[in-house]
Specification:
230 residues; mainly alpha; Four Helix Bundle (Hemerythrin (Met), subunit A)
Length: 230
């Protein structure tokens, strides 16, 4: 592999967070454009929001199951603030799900309040996205350096392997939808090269086939070239 596909340290946060930022920004835009006078369009926008909430909940579960316990094992108490944020986000995800249901019901019933109800969902989602952007920036700027201080790259790759082994192909595909378009060519190559020894070949081939539909032909050519070189 050439030096353009080599990072100085194994990073458990940077690439997944790019995908989450992409998903949140796209969904926030779509909810802002939601037409409460169009039930079909509303249903599509709300379905994307529910997908986003599921992805965020799943990502948080990964961190709670694998990443935060790794920190606590070698630096007890160091992830306490992060864990408290996660509890808050869990409640916020549930509240957004309830608000989304209220929007669908108002639109289906042609309620005279459907426009302000939809706008309220947009405001609450905007607040939630802002909180998550700050939360992820803290994880990358504070918790990730702590992981680097506590673990070497082989140990961090082992944690990444545990995460990939725990995820289902469907969950991976849900992440790939937002992740692959959000990465630059070097990051895509790093992601796939790193995952190649950790995933069954048939699963990796399926994910790569899906990824090809998500990026431009030029970006796919760059990724293929990097994989061949690796």
């Amino acid at each position: 592999m050439n030096n353009t596909t080599t990072l100085p340290r194994q990073d458990l946060y940077a690439l997944p967070h790019k995908g989450l930022r992409h998903a949140m920004s796209d969904t926030q835009l779509r909810i802002g454009m939601l037409d409460p006078d169009d039930p079909a369009a509303t249903a599509g926008a709300i379905a994307q929001l529910r997908d986003l909430l599921a992805i965020l909940s799943h990502h948080q579960t990964i961190e709670d199951r694998f990443v935060l316990p790794a920190i606590e094992a070698r630096r007890p108490g160091a992830s306490a603030d992060n864990a408290r944020d996660h509890h808050h986000h869990t409640r916020a995800i549930a509240a957004l799900g309830d608000r989304a249901t209220a929007v669908v019901r108002a639109v289906e019933a042609a309620s005279p309040d459907r426009h302000p109800i939809a706008h309220r969902l947009y405001l609450e989602l905007s607040t939630f996205v802002g909180e998550n952007l700050t939360h992820m920036a803290i994880e990358e700027s504070e918790l990730n350096p702590l992981l680097w201080a506590l673990y070497d790259d082989d140990e961090l790759r082992a944690i990444q392997g545990q995460i990939l082994a725990w995820e289902t192909p469907a969950q991976m595909a849900g992440s790939v939808r937002w992740l692959m378009p959000a990465l630059n060519p070097t990051e895509r190559a790093l992601l796939v090269v790193g995952a190649r020894p950790l995933l069954p070949p048939e699963v990796l081939d399926q994910l790569l086939g899906y990824a090809r539909t998500l990026i431009s032909p030029a970006d796919w050519a760059k990724l293929s070239s990097a994989l061949d070189a690796a």
